[in-house]
Amino acid sequence: MNTIPADDRVSRSTFLRWVTLASVLLSSLMVVACGGANNEGGQTGQSNAAFTNDELEQRLKFDARVTDYQMDGDKLTVNVNKAWMSSPPGLQVRATSQWFAMWQSARAGDGKPPGGLEVVVQHEGEKVARWSAEKGYELIPKEKPDAISAE
What we know:
Helices cover 42% and strands 20% of the residues. It is α+β, with helices and mostly antiparallel strands. It has a domain at 53-139. It has a 5-stranded mixed beta sheet. A hairpin with a 2-residue loop joins strand 1 (66-72) and strand 2.
């Protein structure tokens, strides 16, 4: 014997349908919002597009953080300005990673083996960071002058 009136059963089933619908919509919204992207251990900012030396030079020429650059064999030296130096460490790593990826792509396009490539970042003639295929990003600590011993 069921003691719930028929009108209450209909409203409960309608309520459960609305709750189920809201849950599905909320779950779908969460999946879309999170995107499901996964970048495990990859280098940030890398592009799969191939670069030529000319395209690399154009990118560096118009990069507001770069004062000038030199390409010497497998080494790309990028001289940066204060904007790069004052940016957060994560943005410095990202910029260096992008320069390395473009340098690697440009060198591969030249038919040269990608091993031994390196990007060195300098500010006012002093090396501040480097990116190599072997070690990835490295921050180069400032050299401290030797303390004069007081005797």
